[in-house]
Amino acid sequence: MDHHLLFEKLNHHLLKIATSLKKPISNWKQKDIHDFRVLIKQEKAYWFLLQVALSQNIPNKPWMEIKPLYAQLGEIRDGQVSLQLLDQYGYFSKWLERDLMQMQVSPTYLRSLRKHLIDSTIFNWAYWSEQFKHQELQPSSVIFAIRKLVLKINILINAPVVQWHELRKCVKMMLYINQIIPGSYFDYSNKIIGETAKLLGKWQDIYVLKLYLNNLAYNKKKKNDYINELTEVLNKESFKLQAKTNSILNSSNWSRAVSVIAIS
Description:
Blueprint: H1 3-20, H2 30-54, H3 61-88, H4 92-97, H5 108-111, H6 125-132, H7 139-157, H8 164-180, H9 187-220, H10 225-249, H11 252-263
Helix pairs in contact: 1-2, 1-6, 2-3, 2-7, 2-8, 3-9, 7-8, 7-11, 8-9, 9-10, 9-11
């Protein structure tokens, strides 16, 4: 794989990040937040591949600059998804009636997000070009980078479920890396890995809401009946998602998918 192709992909995403920031953050809709966070995750995946493949610990300055905003938007995204889950499971009105909502329900919550004055010049194309222009990215180095990621995923598969957030990040990173590597032999892997990432995403959304409910109950010193009911519903749904995900992760299809990636 030509390292220039990977560098172009990285530049392309950094440019999209800078472009998206031109729109006032206070006007961002839920889709804007989602799309922006996906861009950041892709940038991190490409940077990981470059660092491992080039055997260099190159500081990811764009990520360090954008991390505070990324985290804050993540909290908003978690809040929005939690509200949707409450509505989906029929507890939204009860939540509001009891006046237990600690986050704003209306779009004013998003508009209240403090503005970050981020100059697009933090993505200095000349700097990154200078870093990589004399490097050769060999196919064997790319495979080594992916193997390193596969190894981490295999360890996390057998880790306690509370570490599935990290597992999801690794699976998503593998998916993004696969999508930029030319060759139709990755199509099969992308399908399986994409399905796994979606299941892990649904599991995480429920996990976040359960944490919020637990904190709420702790602060109230006791659980309301409907909190108990909702927690039970979420637990059942969480177990279903865990079972589906484990079924994939321990299947021959998953083994085949990661083998194709690591060996090709």
